[in-house]
Amino acid sequence: MRRLYALGLLIFSLSSPAFAQINSTSITDNADAKAISAEIFGPKRQTDLAFGAFQRGYYLTALSLALDRAGKNNSAAAAQTLIATIYANGLGVAENMALASSWYAIAAKNGDVNATFQLALLYQNGRGVPRDRKRGAELFAQAAKMGSPEAKYNLALLHVEGIYATPSYSEAARLMKEAAAAGLAEAHYNYGIMLSEGAGVAPDAKAGANEIKIAAQMGLSEAQVEYATILYLGKGINRNLARAVFWYRQAANAGNPVAQNRLAKLIAAGEGVKLDLQTAAMWRSLARRQGLVDPGLDRLLVSITPEDQARADQRARFWPGVVQSKTSAPPLAPANAGDAMGKAMLNMDKLLEPQKIVPPKTTPIAPSGSPAK
């Protein structure tokens, strides 16, 4: 079974930093507003004020309010988690992972699910604490029992890995399904792969394709590439070359080199889209910038004129989202072989030698939820 796509998720959605801090009294002094709020919503807790300041980018004010609340019983765990988040992300203060891990540990002990999950990430990646993947797995399990979709997702990956959690594809599929039901795009994608390949569940290509489609619609480029491949092959659903082109283009526009390469091949072959060697060459150039070189695509473009090639290179240089500096462009490297996904393009190479392509490996950005080996 192919390796599942792993990506960790930060719990808090951080707003843009503000350039000034406000005094906490400016939040609390409006008596009329407080009275109306209390009448409608009930008494306002100080932790809510801290989160309000945090969401507006007033991080020092949020820290002050949260610290004041952290030692009290009512909502202390939420305040403790907020303090940890501020230090973990260096918001208004210097980043301090050791201090962040201490606050996450306190909040986790007091039953905060977000803190438990974030502490698991720290142990998985060795940030602020000694790396201890076994302890991280235990914390993921705790947070999963408390209902955290992100924890369920990461625990599922650990069950697939089978080192720090019991090897069990069936348990992984159960957790992945629950995480998908909670709306995690990565979980939809991975659960779709498991359904397609019958890993831990009865194989169901149609249901698998639908899960992958959901992840694609949520903007996950890996899922967009996979769903485009499913449409190209007609795997579990009706074959649709035009829609395959659409989803490859979505992922290509997001900068996915595998999508850029495959879109170039479809355009160069005129499959599902009008044949256009110049545009195909542009996508080839963009994929090459990220290290993906495909001799099969080169053969499809062997007849391109020097003028069209020059124009394609110029278009690629000014294409949105591509770094313009030559020194920052990654070196060209041959594509690796062995990925099952690469077989999707074999039908396009009937007269050419088969070529398998694997997407470049991605490294999770700490603090990520991806269990690292």
From TrEMBL:
Q: Where is this region: Disordered?
A: 353-373
Extract the Pfam families matched here: Sel1
Protein name in UniProt: FOG: TPR repeat, SEL1 subfamily
Q: Which organism is this entry from? A: hydrothermal vent metagenome
